[in-house]
Amino acid sequence: MIWGRFVLTAGLQCCRCRVSCHVRRHYRILPDDVKSLRAVVNPDVSKIRNIGIMAHIDAGKTTTTERMLYYSGYTRALGDVDDGDTVTDFMAQERERGITIQAAAVTFEWKTHRINLIDTPGHVDFTLEVERALRVLDGAVAVFDASAGVEAQTLTVWRQAEKHHVPCVCFLNKMDKPAASLSFSIESIKKKLKANPVLLQIPVGSGKDFSGVVDLLTNQKLIWKHKTMRDEEDGRTFEITPLDESEEPELLQEVSEARTALIEQVADLDDEFADLLLTDFGENFDEVPSIKLQEAVRRVTLARKGVPVLCGSSLRNKGVQPLLDAITAYLPAPNERHHDLVRWYNDDLCALAFKVVHDKQRGPLVFLRIYSGTLKPQSAVHNINRNSVERVSRLMVPFADQNVEIPSMTAGNIALTVGLKQTVTGDTIVSSKSSAAAAAARRAHSDSGTGAKRGEHDSVVLSGVEVPEPVFFCTIEPPTMAKQADLENALNNLQREDPSLKVRVDPDSGQTILCGMGELHIEIIHDRIRREYGIETHLGPLQVAYRESILHEVSTTETLDRTIGERRHVVTVELAVTPLDSSSCEFAFTEELGAKLSAEIKEAVENGVQSAYLQGPLLGYPLQGVSALIQSVHSEPGTSPAMVSACVSRCVHKALRLAGGQVLEPVMSLEVTVEEERLSSVLGDLAQRRGTVRDIQSRHDDKVLLATVPLAEMMGYSTTLRTVTSGNATFTLELDTYEAMNPQDQNSLLKRVSGLL
């Protein structure tokens, strides 16, 4: 026997561990003291990883995060979602329901790296939380239920990651489930996500006998011991042994084939590795050094040509430490991601506000991703979007709802600030107005030879966060008029926290209208107003947020002649509206008109058009799929821009009425997982809801029904589904598109809204 000295997996401290001549290593973490965030220092940017955990609901994101914090030494005990004691699910609603509602940020160290992690929700109603997290992150871990593979919300979050060009690592969780299948999950990643999975591990054992993994890069077996009377099964202890001839022949054969396939796949995706193989290891792939293979997998991952796939069981405390190693090994550091606008700031501060939460004592807390420069407390910063100067009074490292103050934060990190009272999600924060001007000048000078138009580089603003449009709305009323002001304050704060929540006042009834992403979203908002602000509000019936469009192209003219005091305002506008096959609305000037109008009048015209688009000609719902071409704007001298805007708005409304209105209803993608013997009951109910079946797939012993169905028909669906299947079914629902209603359904809606039914 020999003695060796090894750094513990979590990097807490060094200890002596016994090593046999067969190099069997036992890794154990002994967290006598929980690590403090106060000890965290600003590491080199190459040692930082900004990552998100994303998945379908109940795939195990929060459980995986909880294990990461425990093994890295930042928590003393393993939290459990069902017990409501996890670090990142700290809201009362999250702990009661066992789901993640808002993204939570935590910072911790793993070995020599600093990981800034955001745990995101898996429910479709809170997809904005995923969107704004991925906007500022450099990499992501996609967690899958290994018995289900790619599910409905997996597709949504994967598309969001692709939109932001975020490299990903896949973690096949719940390998201990009886129906868990490595091959099924890999195939679903290929077919449904159109991704290229690069398998780095294969499981040892299946179902309840799942005990560990084989690392295909190193040909080592990692085994987590089962619970014993003397040793609590918390996953701290695992055993690493090299594969040898004493292993089961089936396992050796599977590992050999999988490693050869891995090497061939990486060679196809990475030219540098292919050259190395041909030059040095063409005769024997077994001699390929694991470090060379790891470097090649990293290049493939960063180029987004493939996604590393690992497996484990977070709930059973198996496979999480190798996942942490994979995060640091394969996902990019901040300086490996290229942000075009940031480079013009050089070493000056440039940051993006991506989330706001309200604290009763400290006011608004703003989360910033720092792209360049250094941020310090008590420093003044310039908000380009608001054109305002604010002061950062305190600076903190985020750790869910427990945050620690620090003296500075450098580029590449995520910071939590106190004192930014005007900043909202999507705002760009820089050190000063002159800094922004200097960055714009550098960009303009660089592009001077490209023929860029004047005014294109007046400011250098980071792209914000895309906010989806609400699909549900209802009225909300305070218990008494004395509470109206308190309710308005609560709604203002909640809107600032959650941009997908929209609040408006009905111009006819004067009622406050609450608009949200789904039944659960509005239910959570209602509950938060009661708990956090102490207001017992009343919600009206939930209604679907329809849209409107037009049927025909129409040209029209409108003149506005008003005398206010001694001043006469006269405007004549000529324009044309055209239906578009698009989910958005557009407007443009003719080339001749655009060249001669002043910037002030152009802005007034745009305000008028956008105002008209908010209210359709039939029921007053917002418009989509409409284009307006402004052909002529003539105003008498002295006419105010406000009058120009009003005339344009009237002209657009007139054209919309003449073009013929059409109601568009939200149509949802529905996925139901149900036992085969109960499938007919689900299909029968779906037929009564104007649903269209797209496909019926098999998933082990269950059937997966894929369909589209109008949102208006899905009220109370969870209760009905529970009844017809005796609780043996699950479903997910997400917005697919807006479709034109058929004439009969549209007439019924018009009569119902008009109060004739």
Automatic annotation (TrEMBL):
GO aspect biological process, one term: ribosome disassembly
Annotated ranges, domain Tr-type G: 46-335
Reaction equations catalysed: GTP + H2O = GDP + phosphate + H(+)
Keywords: GTP-binding, Hydrolase, Mitochondrion, Nucleotide-binding, Protein biosynthesis
Protein origin, superkingdom: Eukaryota
Binding-site list for GTP: 55-62, 119-123, 173-176
Intracellular or extracellular location(s): Mitochondrion
GO CC annotation: mitochondrial matrix
Gene Ontology molecular-function annotations: GTP binding; GTPase activity
Keyword Hydrolase: yes
Keyword field contains Nucleotide-binding: yes
Similarity annotation: Belongs to the TRAFAC class translation factor GTPase superfamily. Classic translation factor GTPase family. EF-G/EF-2 subfamily.
Function: Mitochondrial GTPase that mediates the disassembly of ribosomes from messenger RNA at the termination of mitochondrial protein biosynthesis. Acts in collaboration with MRRF. GTP hydrolysis follows the ribosome disassembly and probably occurs on the ribosome large subunit. Not involved in the GTP-dependent ribosomal translocation step during translation elongation.
The protein, known as: Ribosome-releasing factor 2, mitochondrial
